[in-house]
Amino acid sequence: MRDSSVLITISDVIEYLFCPRFIYFIYCLDIPQHEEKRFKVLKGRDVHEIRRLTNTSYLRKKLGCISKERNVFVASKENHIKGIVDEVLFLEDGTAAPLEYKFAEYKDKVYMTYKYQLYLQALMISENYDVEVNRAYICYTRSNNMVKSIKIEPEDVDEAIKIAKKTIDIIEKGVYPKATKYKSKCIDCCYRNICV
């Protein structure tokens, strides 16, 4: 990528996708978003904690899983990204795949933010384990634990890296970015009172 001391998380990239100004407020102005006060964030953390403590040896054999690791820290030094994967599945065809649990209902499509999270996880699993990653999975806990498969293409990963670079650019340069073009997001934004 380039020389930089900035190391971002996958969550930072997701927040950039929500609105680039999120990154500016958090990193350039040091104004916390207080996500610990948001119901879905708290509930999502509960879901992850329950998953961490229960049924630890369960393998998803329908997915061809032969082993797994849970709550795995992964990083890409070259791309300045880090994150934690709920589960890294090692599959019978010799590939691996990230699996994420979401406190969400499946509504006939996988949101782009989820896809980019999985693209970056796939990149880092591939780099950290030196294994091919060509698919990923999401488990929707509010839809009876429905699991959806996502195909991972190299161009998807490249696009996710580009977004990570844009996220780092805001932090490094401190330039006030354009807000999201989707104004409906502003209604639920914790920075709506200071965003002009």
TrEMBL record:
Cofactor(s) annotated in UniProt: iron-sulfur cluster; Mg(2+); Mn(2+)
Enzymatic class: hydrolase
Cofactor stoichiometry and binding remark: Mg(2+) or Mn(2+) required for ssDNA cleavage activity.
Residue ranges of every copy of the DUF83 domain listed in the record: 10-196
EC number: 3.1.12.1
One GO biological process term: defense response to virus
Ranges that cross the membrane: none
Entry keyword set: Antiviral defense, Exonuclease, Hydrolase, Iron, Iron-sulfur, Manganese, Metal-binding, Nuclease
A Gene Ontology molecular function term of the record: metal ion binding
InterPro entries: Cas4_exonuclease, CRISPR-assoc_prot_Cas4, Dna2/Cas4_DUF83, PDDEXK-like_dom_sf
Its biological purpose: CRISPR (clustered regularly interspaced short palindromic repeat) is an adaptive immune system that provides protection against mobile genetic elements (viruses, transposable elements and conjugative plasmids). CRISPR clusters contain sequences complementary to antecedent mobile elements and target invading nucleic acids. CRISPR clusters are transcribed and processed into CRISPR RNA (crRNA).
NCBIfam families xref list: cas4
Similarity remark: Belongs to the CRISPR-associated exonuclease Cas4 family.
Name recorded for this polypeptide: CRISPR-associated exonuclease Cas4
Organism: Methanohalophilus portucalensis FDF-1
Top-level taxonomy: Archaea, Methanobacteriati, Methanobacteriota, Stenosarchaea group, Methanomicrobia
Gene: cas4
